[in-house]
From TrEMBL:
Superkingdom assignment: Eukaryota
Domain (VOC): residue spans on this chain: 8-134
UniProt-listed PANTHER family: GLYOXALASE FAMILY PROTEIN, VOC DOMAIN-CONTAINING PROTEIN
Species in which this protein is naturally found: Solanum lycopersicum (Tomato)
Cited Pfam families: Glyoxalase
Protein name, as recorded: VOC domain-containing protein
InterPro entries: Glyas_Bleomycin-R_OHBP_Dase, Glyas_Fos-R_dOase_dom, GlyoxalaseI/FosfomycinResist, VOC_core
Length: 137
């Protein structure tokens, strides 16, 4: 039977300098299990529910010629036009865990007017990661 929901969102791909290091960092800092790390270390995946978080090198000939070069932040004041957002029941513990495992602090968790507690960190490649509680109804 066909679904009216449209296609399933399958992957978020994070372009990084070192796939193995990024996979290990995300597993430790954010509490994910590693699903896959290819022998050539050009592809890695984390178990994250219905959507897979995948990692691949910033520079790779397989896609550079097709989709263009990945633009990385040039300074701490720059960021990518996308961020990863993870929901936690205990945002303070999640933020502490991320920092203790190598994430760079951006903004400690604070209550937002829309009913969510949110904190921000950067991964080793400078990507912004939002750690948030579930939005209260």
């Amino acid at each position: 039977m066909a679904s009216n929901l449209g296609p399933a969102f399958a992957y978020t791909v994070v372009y990084c300098k070192d796939v193995a290091k990024s996979v290990a960092f995300y597993a430790k800092a954010f509490g994910y299990n590693v699903r896959r790390l290819d022998e050539n270390r050009k592809w890695g995946e984390l178990e994250s529910g219905a959507t897979t978080i995948a990692f691949t090198p910033v520079h790779q000939h397989e896609t550079d010629d097709i989709t263009g070069h990945v633009q990385t932040p040039q300074s701490r004041g720059d960021r990518q036009p996308i961020e990863l957002c993870f929901d936690y029941v205990d945002i303070d513990a999640a933020y502490k865990r991320a920092i203790e495992n190598g994430a760079m602090a951006v903004s400690e968790p604070e209550e937002k007017k829309w009913g969510q507690k949110v904190g921000y960190v950067r991964d080793p490649d400078g990507n912004i990661v939002r750690l948030g509680s579930h939005v209260k109804s």
